[in-house]
């Protein structure tokens, strides 16, 4: 069992580091060109960044930039601020989307964070298949499932950093925080860290019912919690994942 004196940060990673690194004089022109193309949705350039995320000169370049100046990354600045707020060592999971740019940023951050010492340690890099998912609901369901399961196994202080990343991730992460009694952290441009209070919520017990009337199903469809497909009603996948997270959290 984890000590209650430990702290855990689920940090959503976007591409702020790469966008800021483009203006760095220490970055090669070739690297700047690849990053620019990737951020403008060039699939070939993004594939090169995905390959570079594992090892090599580009990863070292980006990592050195953020290590020399943490302000180059909203995520790195958030991690440092949360560590200071928690006043204890902190385990960090980095959550990136499935683009090469986001994966590279996450790996560069991990490399830099782990170089800082034992007060902050990256315990995992989680790639959420948002852009390769077949639908919005599928992507949301996967994200809720992945992040929720990691948070409910933690003891002590749990924080979700939402300064970076997609708006979709931020909204979903806030829902997860409410369901798992975690805190939400956002770093203002002024440098002020805002820690939102834990506001525990539970899904309506009516969602757990096995038998529903047509009127019940229609109400759920109207509220965006269910769908009617191929002649059958069913709860949205992301709702099922939320129910699963809630059930598991009650056992910890």
- Strand order across the biggest sheet? 3-2-1-4-5-6
> What is the 3D form?
globular
Number of strands: 8
- Helix percent reads 40-55%
What value does the average pLDDT take? 86
Count of alpha and pi helical runs? 10
Radius of gyration: 20 Å
Question: How does the helix and strand content classify structurally?
Answer: alpha/beta
> What proportion strand?
15-25%
Order of helices and strands: EHHHHHEHEHEHEEHEEH
**Distance separating the two termini:** 10 Å
Low-confidence stretches: none
Q: Largest sheet at a glance?
A: 6 strands, mixed
Features:
alpha/beta, 252 residues, globular, 6-stranded mixed β-sheet, 10 helices, two-stranded antiparallel ribbon
Q: What can you see in these coordinates?
A:
This protein is α/β, with parallel strands linked by helices and 252 residues long. Helix content is 48%, strand content 18%. It is built from ten helices and eight strands. The strands form two sheets. A six-stranded mixed β-sheet has the order 3-2-1-4-5-6, with helices on both faces. A two-stranded antiparallel sheet has the order 7-8.
Write the layout of secondary structure elements.
Elements: E1 7-12, H1 16-21, H2 29-39, H3 43-52, H4 57-68, H5 74-86, E2 90-97, H6 100-115, E3 120-128, H7 136-152, E4 157-161, H8 167-180, E5 183-187, E6 193-196, H9 214-222, E7 226-229, E8 232-235, H10 237-249
Parallel strand pairs: 1-2, 1-4, 2-3, 4-5
Antiparallel strand pairs: 5-6, 7-8
């Amino acid at each position: 069992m984890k000590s209650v004196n430990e702290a855990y940060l689920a940090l959503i990673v976007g591409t702020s580091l790469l966008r800021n690194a483009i203006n760095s004089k220490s970055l090669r022109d070739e690297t700047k060109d690849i990053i620019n193309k990737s951020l403008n949705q060039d699939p070939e350039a993004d594939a090169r960044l995905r390959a570079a995320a594992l090892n090599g000169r580009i990863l070292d370049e980006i990592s050195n930039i953020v290590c020399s100046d943490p302000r180059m990354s909203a995520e790195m600045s958030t991690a440092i601020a949360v560590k200071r707020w928690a006043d204890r060592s902190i385990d960090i999971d980095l959550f990136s989307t499935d683009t090469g740019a986001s994966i590279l940023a996450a790996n560069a951050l991990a490399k830099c964070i782990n170089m800082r010492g034992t007060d902050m340690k990256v315990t995992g890099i989680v790639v959420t298949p948002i852009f390769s998912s077949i639908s919005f609901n599928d992507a949301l369901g996967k994200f809720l499932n992945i992040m929720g399961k990691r948070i409910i196994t933690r003891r002590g202080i749990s924080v979700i950093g939402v300064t970076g990343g997609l708006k979709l991730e931020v909204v979903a992460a806030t829902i997860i925080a409410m369901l798992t009694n975690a805190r939400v952290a956002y770093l203002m441009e002024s440098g002020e860290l805002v820690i939102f209070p834990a506001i525990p919520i539970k899904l309506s017990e009516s969602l757990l019912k096995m038998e529903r009337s047509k009127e019940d199903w229609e109400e759920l469809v109207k509220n965006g919690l269910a769908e009617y497909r191929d002649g059958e009603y069913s709860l949205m996948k992301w709702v099922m994942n939320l129910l699963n997270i809630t059930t598991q959290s009650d056992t910890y």
